[in-house]
Amino acid sequence: MSDSYLITGGKPLKGEVILSGAKNVALKTIISALMFKGDVVLKNIPRINDVLDLIELIKSLGAKAKFREKNILVINGEKLKSNRVDLSYGSKIRVSFMLFAPLLYHFGECYVPNPGGCRIGARPIDRIVNGLKALGVRVDYDEATGYFHAKIDNKPKGIYRFEKPSHTGTELLMMIGLMTDDKIEIENIANEPEINDLILYLNSAGANIVQNGNKIIINKSQELKQKEPFAIMSDRNELVTYATLAVASQGDIVIGTIDEKLISSFLNFMKEAGAGVEEISNFKFRFFYKGEIKPVNIETSPHPGFMTDWQPSWAILMLKSTGESVIHERVFENRFSYVDELKKLGANIKFIESKVENPEFFYHFNLDKNKTYQQTIKIIGPSELHNAILNIADLRAGAALVCGALLSAGESVVNGASILERGYEDFVEKVKKLGGEIEKV
71-104: buried (b, 16+ CB within 10 Å) or exposed (e) per residue? Predict the structure, then answer.
């Protein structure tokens, strides 16, 4: 099986990119569709590896799922036959953990393995498990098998406050709340646009979910039944990948369609860096090189701040800036897998120590006092990049490595293409249309 990219870099990339649907919405809408009555039609679903793996997983449980057109998916979960997620499927994809909700809805009891996915940090499941227990779900973990066993004896209800916001946790507890006969309140939620899109989708089918600042209230809902097809939002992470590549390669790319509110902090940082940024029509943006790129420091944070998923792409842009820039990662503790790989291309990057007051509050992951963390890098630019053989360790790092290779003189090989393709649809085809030289080998 081919799982590498052969890339000849050094060209400015120009043209237009049509954004695919958001990975982090597609996966959650597919899973929650298993709690609906009848067929669910989802539009703008990207054909990426994570989605394709999830489809096979839910089909193994007895659900029906089929693409009617390239990006229109029809799902029916009324005849689920198994409440146990196979380890071979669950180990591939982290979102399998969210199958707790539809399996408990259908069977009242389920078995779900410790989830897989990118290893970008511990992503503590204890916050989510504590939330499930607070709402009345019994959860036990068997270390010998690697499975969680969950059971509900009564309809979920109650209040849970996350110690630190959790994107996956917010969505899962919200889906558990769809089973309540009373109401459920979730406090200190993750407040991301993808969550808002999921709420819109569920409410359009009969749910009664109200968001009030950092709190979500799930009231007793009608039986969920779709009234019309639902189109998910575009992927803002994909936009950032191509936008930074456009400017770093001294190119000119139009990207759409997407609401400006979803990427406002990114647009502000791009302008600060001296990038050309124009909104050329409703929901379409032009990113282009217009002169020297300025170094800009960033700290990652939840929406509306600078997303953790964006920082590897920002590092690529900063490689071409004139001066020193700093990236401080606050959300995950292992998000710099790309650093040593970019050094193979000739990038001048080093880890630096960052003094932080109240680190337990400042960082969004659970700190281990016995562990040493490397959360900050300094990039010295501009870097003259050359060819190398690179290895992808996680999804967004993979995009950064491919973009680094596209900026580099000569022929590079990037191994681990399937990891990148967990989240990027038609990646090779889109890059080729922009003039990039890339082949899957």
Answer: bebbbbbeebeebbbebebbbbbbbbbbbbbbbb
